[in-house]
Structure formats: C-alpha cells, structure tokens
Amino acid sequence: MMQLENNKLTALESDSVGKVFVRYLVPSVVGMFMMSINVVIDGIFVGQRLGEVALAGVNVAFPVFSIYFAISLWVGIGGAALYSRSLGAKDAEQARSIFTHSLTLIFSLTLALAGIAYLFREKLAVFLGANNETMPYAMEFMTVLLSFGFVVTVQNAFSIFVRNDANPNLAMISLLVTAVCNIGLNYVLLFVLDFGVAGSAWALIGASAIGACVLFTHFLRKDSTLRFVKLRLSWKLAKSTFTIGFPSFVAELGIAVFTAGYNMAMVRWAGTLGVSAFSILNYVHSVVLMLFIGMGSGIQPLISYYRGAKQHARERETIRIAVKTSIGIGLGVFLIGLLTADGIVSLFGSFTREVQELAASGIRLFFVGYLFMGVNFVMMTYFQSTDQVKMATWITVAREMLIMVALLFTLPHVMGTTGIWLAIPLSELIVVLTVYAYIRRHSRTAASVNAAS
C-alpha cells in the first residue's frame, strides 16, 4: 500500500512543474466550469419556463447556495492544505486523521447553520433583496436549498479531498456527471412535471447527490490514501483548519455580499428591471468565477504538497505559471463579453428591450474586472497555502466587501447604473495593486535579510 502511495506521489516531484500544473489545472477548471453550468442551467430553464421575475427571485435566493459552498471551502480547503502537506511529508496516517476530522466539521457546521437559516428564511430573503414580486419565488427556491443543501456541501468537500489525493480526474468526472444530470432533472421537473422554481432547486440537489456517489468510488481504489479512521477531536487541528481555510470561506461569503449588494443597488437605482438585468449577468459571472476558483483549486494541492516536501523552487514556479495563465484567461473572457454581450443575454430568454440593453451594457463594463480577478484568486490561494493568511484574507475581504461596498455606495451617485457595473472592476484593480505592493515590499525585506546575513 505504501509503495503504491509513493508511486502516486513521485510524479509531483519528478515530472516538470509545467506538466504537473496542466495535469491538475485542466480537470479542476473543467470540473468547476461544469459546477457553474449547474447554476446557469437553473437560470436558463427558469428564465425560459417561468420568466424574468422568477429568474430574479431565484437570483435573490442564490446566496444560500453560496453559504453552503463557503462552508465546504472553508473546512475543505483548510483541511486539504494540511492533508497535502502531510502527504508531502510522507505521513499518510496524519493525512487520514485530518480528512476524517475535516469531514466531521463540515457536516456538523452545515446542519447547524442550515437549521438556523431555515427558521429565519423570510427575514433572510428580505435581507437578500426580495421584494413583493420576487419573494414567492425566492422563498420557494430557498426552502428546498435550506432543507437539503447539505448534499451540495458533502459533494464539494469530497471533491476537494479527492483532488488532493492525486485524483483530479475523478473530481472532474463527478462534476461532469452532476451537470448532465442537472440538465435532465431540470427539464423533467420544470417542463414535464411543472414543479415551478422548487423543481429547479430539487434538480440541483438530486444531481449533486449523484455526483457525490461518483466520488465515493475513490475509496475503492487500491492507491487511495483517503480513508476514514477513528475520529480524534482536536481543537488545535480544528483551529489550523479554520485558520487556513478562512480566506476561502470569506471569498465565497463575499459572493453572497456581492449578490446582495448588487441586488440592493439595482433595486434602488433601476428597480425590478435592474435586478432582472443583474440576475442575467450574475449567472454568467458564476461561470467565470468558477473558472478562477478552479485555478485556485488546481494549484492548491501542488503548493501545499511542495510546502510539506520543502520543494520551494517548484512551489515558486507553480505560482508563476498560474499567474500568467490567469491573465490569459481573463483577457479571453473580457474579449468574449465585449463582442458577444447581446448573444449572452439572449441565452436566458426573451426580455423587454430595457432589460436586454441594460444587461448587455452591464456585461461589457463588468467584464473588465476579469482582467484582474484571476490574479487575485491565484495569489489568494498561494498566500493561503503558504501560511500568509492575513494577506489572503485581505484579498478576499477587500474584493467583494470593503472596497466593492464602498464603491456601490458612491459611484451610482456620480455615474448611475454604470457606476454599479464598474464597482467590481475597480475593486479588483485596487486589490491587484495592493498585492503587487505587498510582494515588492516582501521581496525587498527578504533581500535585506539575506544581504545582512
């Protein structure tokens, strides 16, 4: 068994960094892309079957999904980073203990928070931007997610650990299966059985359950290090897990803040039409966002493993390749949005001319932010995986909370809805500049220490 594990991990240290990077990046990005397709499919089916107000209602309830995803990332990424470090240090027993501990934390947290949110779901919907028109749809979607959304959390947590156990392809296959099942279930539940908005939520839950079953096959592999062992609760381990994973939690929580902030701003400055236009962009944004999250998920196992194995040169080379790749992807997505905005909006249904024009204009402006967003995600993952948690947390808090919220409060007074669309691009740019300044200062400090010694 140990020989199989050693063979599995040897490639991380012997193959070229570029080859290993691609081996992990492609399945991770494809898998996260397919996960985002689940959300977009929900939007397309709801928009085509039930119209723009129902679509806006689902968008209001969408942060509930973000909260589930945030918990799985918080504990999952934190635990997986420690897991991969243990693999790098060739300590399989410690790795398994970390895995068991992390899954217990995730399941417990999910059930506790879902129960609390369910009790206050109406107030939660109002806080997230629901009005008299969108409230029935938001409540319908939210009730299903709060009751059974833990399935989504379990699937994502297993996906993270399977990827860190040198099986990124199975993690990708699981998400591919989930996306295909979601398409089929959405069609049946909305168009055949006429379950309404709740049908879309049930399709998401059912597809996630099937995807989780695919991931469970990893435990049948002879070269799998992942095993459940006797649980040993440890506050020290929990603290390390929560600390390392905290930036990922804040990043996902920031999506909820982003969605709520934009909904509130649009309600104030453009009414329900503005919320409908933003809901279209938000579905598209979820796809691109998952691409960048996929990049982070792809490099996290590598950086964590190299840190545990003390292979710092390979660690630095990995992050250099990742930054260049993120810039290329961001540029490509920006050009696509610039050239095909009207076609993207049309995918979600036939809307009034005002909604169509507002959404297309928003896409062209908002997509400027993707030139910087990928770099921020890559650097956040790097800082997080190398114990520079404060800087990783700054990136996540600043992007979609501090700076973005400040811009949403100020720019619309000067630029109207254009200011709302530009809040994220300007926020991402400002954060990139702070990251650059931090790296420059850190490099000068390191050089001074080396010169003095």
UniProtKB/TrEMBL annotation:
GO biological process, alphabetically ordered: response to antibiotic
Keyword Kinase: no
Transmembrane segments: 21-41, 61-83, 103-121, 141-162, 169-193, 199-220, 241-263, 283-306, 327-351, 363-383, 395-414, 420-439
Membrane topology reported for the UniProt record: Multi-pass membrane protein
CDD domains (alphabetical): MATE_MepA_like (cd13143)
Keywords: Antibiotic resistance, Cell membrane, Membrane, Transmembrane, Transmembrane helix, Transport
Highest taxon in the source lineage: Bacteria
InterPro entries: MATE_fam, MATE_MepA-like, MATE_MepA_subfamily, MdtK-like
An MF annotation (GO) of this entry: antiporter activity
Predominant location: membrane
A Gene Ontology cellular-component term: plasma membrane
Pfam families assigned: MatE
Compartment list: Cell membrane
Listed NCBIfam families: matE
Protein family membership: Belongs to the multi antimicrobial extrusion (MATE) (TC 2.A.66.1) family. MepA subfamily.
Name of this protein: Multidrug export protein MepA
UniProt source species: Paenibacillus tyrfis
